[in-house]
Amino acid sequence: MMLFIPFAAFLLFVAFLSWYLTRKEKLSTSDGYFLGGRSLTGFYIAGSLLLTNLSTEHLIGLNGSAYRYGMEVMAWETLAALAMVAMALFFLPRYLKMGLVTITEFLEVRFDKATRVIVSGLFLLLYVTTLLPIVLYTGALNLESIFDVSAILEVSRFEAIILMVVFIGGIGSLFAILGGLKAVAVSDTINGIGLIIGGIAIPILAFYQIGSGSFFDGVNEVYTTIPDHFNSIGDADSEVPFAVIFTGMFIPQVFYWTMNQSIIQRTFGAKNLAEGQKGVLIAAFFKLIIPFIVVIPGIIAFYYFKGGLDNQDLAYPELVKAVLPVHFTGIFAAVIVGAVLSTFNSALNSASTLFSIDVYKGYINKSASEQQYVRVGKITTTVLAIAVIIIAPLISRAGDGLFIILQEFSSIFNMPIFAVIVAGLLLRKVSAKAAKIGLVIGTSLYLLSKFGLDAMDVDIHFLHRLCVAFFATIFSMLILSNRYPNRKEFTIQNKGVVDVKNWKYVKPVSFLVVVLTILIYLLFSPMFL
Description:
This protein has one domain: Sodium/glucose cotransporter, CATH 1.20.1730.10. The protein is 74% helix and 0% strand. The protein is built from 23 helices and no strands. It has helices at residues 4-22, 30-35, 42-53, 56-69, 75-78, 80-97, 103-110, 113-147, 149-153, 157-210, 215-225, 250-258, 261-268, 273-287, 291-294, 296-304, 315-323, 326-364, 370-391, 402-426, 432-455, 462-483, 506-523. The longest helix is centred in the middle third of the chain and has 54 residues, at 157-210. The chain starts with a helix and ends in a 6-residue tail after the last helix.
C-alpha cells in the first residue's frame, strides 16, 4: 500500500495538470484534435518527442541488451541524434511548407491516393502488431517486477501481466481519446521530466551503493571488473557489429525520426518552423545522454547480479528494486507508466489520425464534417486499443531480447515505407505505379532475407540484410519507372499554414550535435578505454 499511494498520486497529478493546461483547447476540429491547433512550442515538442520515443521497450529491452552485450547497443540511441539533425535541416522544412497533417499526405501529393492509403495501412499494421503490444507488455513486466503483483493477488505471473496490460492500456486510451495531441504532448513533457530525473538517479544510486558511498569508486569497480562491457565497438558476432553503422543502421534511425507518424506528428503541430527545429534539436541533445538511462543500468546489472539473471529483460526492473529506496519506488513506477502511456497514447493518436484523414476522409465519407472526423478518430482509437490489449500478453512467448525483436520485425513495414518516401523526395523519375510495386517488392525482399536465409542457416545481421533490401527496392522502382514513366510533375508548394523561416541557430546547433555524437562514440571506443 505504501508503494501504491505515491504511484496513484503521481498519475493523478499528471492527469490533472494535463487537463488544466489544455482545458481551453478546441478539440472539435481535426487540427485541434490531431495537431494541437498547430500551437506547439519547442519545449513541448522536445518533451513529447523524447517520451514518445523513450518507453519501457528501451528501459527494459535496451538495458536487457546492454546486460548481455554491453555498450555497443548505445548505437541505437546515440546515432539517433544524427537522424534528428537530418529532420531539422532537410525534412521538417519541406513537411511544414506542405502543411502536412500526416506523412502519408505527402505520398498522395507526390504519387496518388492509392499509395497514400497503402502506406497508411502499413503504418497501422506496424503499430498494432509490433510497437504497441511490445510497449504495453514491457510496461506490464516492469510493474509486475516492482510491485510483485502476482504474489499480492495470488495469481500467476502471466495473469498479473494481463491485468497490468489492461490497466495501462485503459489509462492510455483515455488520454488519447479525450485529450487529443496537445494533452498527449503536455503529459509527455511532465512525465519526461520525471523519467529523466528518475532514470539518471538509478545508475547514480547503483554506483554509490557499489562504491560504498563513493560514486567514482563504484564506477571504477564496475569498469575494472567488466571492462569489455564498456566497449562501443561491436565485433562481427555481436548484437550491433560496428559495420552495421555504415550499412543498415541509417534506415530505422532516419525512418523513425523523419517519417514515423507517431513521432513526427508533434512536429507537424509546431506553431512555426523555428519552434519545430528547436524542439527536434533540443531532443537530439537529450538523446546523447539517454544511454546513461537505457544502457549503463544494464551494464551495472550485469556486474550487480554477476550475469546470473535467467532473462536479460529483467535486468532493469531488478536493478531498480535493488538500489532505489522503497519510499521512492512508487513514484518511479508511476514515471515508468508515464513513459509507457506516452508512447502508447501517442501512437494511438497517430493511428487514429491516419485512419480518419487517409481512409475515412479519403474513401468512406469525403464530405464528412470536422466533428465527424474527430468522432471517427476516437472510435478508431478505442478499437485499436482493444486489439493491442489482446495481443500484448502474447509477447511473453517471444522470449528475451525484446528491443532487437522490435527493431527486426518493425523493419518488415518501415523499410518499404522509407524507400518510397525517400524516392518521392529525391527521385523525380519514380512514378506512382513503380512506388506501389516497390512497396510489395521491398516487403517481399526483406521477408525473404529474414526467413529464407534463416531456413538455410545463413547468419547475416538483419541490418546488413535491410540495407541490401532497401537499395534493391530503390533500384527496382527506378527500373519500373522506365516501364511505367512518371507523368506527374511534383514541386513542393508553400501552403502558408505556418511560418517556415528557419531558426537562425539551426545550422551551428546541428553541427554541434554531430560533433558531440562522434565524440561520445569515440569516448567508449578502444582508443580511449
